[in-house]
Description:
The structure holds 2 protein chains of 2 kinds.
Chain A: H1 3-19, E1 37-42, H2 47-60, E2 65-70, H3 73-85, E3 92-95, H4 99-103, H5 112-119, H6 129-135, E4 149-161, H7 162-168, H8 176-186, H9 201-215, H10 219-225, H11 233-247, H12 260-269, E5 275-279, E6 305-308, E7 323-332, H13 339-351, H14 353-360, E8 365-366, H15 379-392, E9 398-399, H16 405-419, H17 425-439
Parallel strand pairs in A: 1-2, 1-3, 7-9
Antiparallel strand pairs in A: 3-7, 4-5, 4-6, 4-7, 4-8
Chain B: H1 2-36, E1 39-40, E2 48-49, H2 53-58, H3 62-93, H4 100-112, H5 115-125, H6 132-140, H7 156-181, H8 185-193, H9 198-209, H10 211-226, H11 230-235, H12 247-257, H13 261-286
Antiparallel strand pairs in B: 1-2
Helix pairs in contact in B: 1-13, 3-7, 3-10, 4-7, 7-10, 8-9, 10-13, 12-13
Amino acid sequence: MSLRKIAALTGVAALSISLAACAGGATTGTSGGDANTVTFRSWSPIEQTTKQMVAAFEADNPGTKVDATIFNYPEYLVDLQTRASSNTFPDIVGLQPGALTQQYRSNLLPLQDCAAKTWGADWQNKFYPIGIEQARAGNPAGDQNFYSLPILVQTVNLWANTELFAAAGATIPKTWDELTSTVAQLKGGNAAPFMLPAKDGWLRNAVFLQIANNVNPGLVYKAESGTDSWSNPDLVKALDYWGKLFTDGIAQDGAIGLDAYPSAVNQFEAGNAAMIPLGAWWIQQSDPTKSQADIPPLSQGMSGYEPFLFPTIPGGAADSQFVGGIDVSLGISKDAANPDLACKVLTDWIAGKGGQKLVDTMNDIPAVAGLTPSSFTSKKQETIWNTFVTDWLPQVKYSRYFDDPKVDQAVSDALAAIATGSQTPEQAAAAIQVVSDGANGK
Amino acid sequence: MRTKLRQNITGLLFLLPAVVLFAVFVVYPIVYNMQASTLDWDGVNAGTFVGFDNYVKLFQDPTFLIALRNSAYWIPLTIIPQALIGFLLALALNRGLFASTVYRAIFFIPAILSPVVVGIVWQRIMDPFNGVFTSVGKATGLDWLGGNFLANPQTAIFAVIFVNIWMWTGFSMLFYLAGLQLIDTSVLEAAKIDGAGPLQTTARIIFPLLKSTHLSLLLLGIIGSLKTFELVYVLTQGGPAHASEMLPTYAFQQAFQLQSVGYASTISVVLIVIAVASSLSMVRVFGAGFISGDEK
């Protein structure tokens, strides 16, 4: 090797070494805003709603500015991680409970003081219990801080197209047997009796958690935490019933290749499906603040829909269980330029005028009880809204999430494997157990 | 030495911006990734040094092996059909067909569409419940058209490859059209005078003369195949059950959904090694001037 080559290689190596040694460090630094500006990044609420919330806050607080950017969820994850690594962490960030909040915990300010200062010492009573419980999911033992506060909560449930049900003379199924017979009754037309957009891992897991909690309420979380086993017969049974959605002809052909957004929801809204598993957020299709002429007929005032819980499973719980939790929560950067202003924005959006704007659009169910939309466009819409806020959300006991992202992925993979016939429920349970053991340090 | 440096200072200064950009945007990310690949790290909190553990884990990871296998499928199954169809289209459109400019535009349009849009549209087309293929199949009796192409682990990767071919064939066509314009017509006339038929002219004159175009498309195809992300992500999300996973989609999932930036960096390093090895192999086999057509 010539001297010149050696010199060149040495130069590149020296340059590389000098440039390296940056990966793997914990993130520190300043946040994006100045004293009168609060930066906000999230994937939810949707952009139009966020604009209204920002406008409401700025109108009430002259001289302040909220710089908000809304992304799609995958892009948001990239943006957040990049910002955390480049010392440009936003003042307020959208978070999901559990793994995402815990990943950024070291960047976040505990919020209980902000909440108590704004709403009083009994501030936790304003929120639905599931929101308060999930807000601290994954905190280290003994850490009672709230690193995020919920802004929107939800149930995961099924929705029926009531027009198709009425046309077929069908009734909402309450048990598994009723589900299979209703699907048989609804078959034969152009619409799918049960449209399952199973391409999305989040939806597979949400449906499975409804089934698992209907088989044996709460057991699945014990398996996740390592106090029970994934090969528990009840969890294998839940996996088996998930598989039956495909093998018993309940789900439409190609269900594992169909995504929820935009494909399945477009079809459901166009009247091409009689049932679909989504959640409380579907009420946003009937947004009263939108021009009603722009809303598809089925969604106007929720005229063509009815929410219902996943049917009970033979030999399982007598009643369908309520599964749900936080849709999105908000956290404040510990390096925020003006934490008081950020606190003011956050609490306004949760339960103030900004929150009212959010509720007016019916983006999802507010995390605090008592906020009601300024107007409803139909009696049915009001009834559905009240069902969620009065009857369902207070009863939600079981989470729609797993705490550990690797377990979440393992369950999602196992459900896909069962759906495609690549694994039996027993094999799938064993595969999840391996990942779960790893997550629990076994 | 000093005199020589003084003589070369102007040239070195001209080189400096390129060197700086290369160092910041190429060398630095690679070194950063290599360093991150030795860590158990979520990308936010302090990582733990694990040496080569991520590499050991990676080569025992069945999903990674599926992604490698899919890349092995993807490279020949996209590059060859795209080049072949693109070449035939270019030949047809180079003969001064009526409205050939319109055809060129039509064939090229998929290449300028967003892969996200293409993915969403093709997902609807291939939806076995009520997609376009299913409707056509029902109308024509070709029931196989309504198959679960994207939902079946055995066919998902090939369905995505099919859409990729549809999308990028126009790009190959444009390359070949440009190459055809550069062929000296006197060579073709001489072949004609010597009695060569259209098939012989195409196979023995035109095809070899387009060597640099073939090789350019091959190199671009390999690099493009290795970094394929959007189309796979939108069409299948790498599923079902990772059956259509590619290295970039798997790296994305590990880094941003499973909070394993260290492991994702390991995948990226392997990707870089494959890309560099492929490029260097081509240079070694075909010579450094293979794209420009220079014999070196």
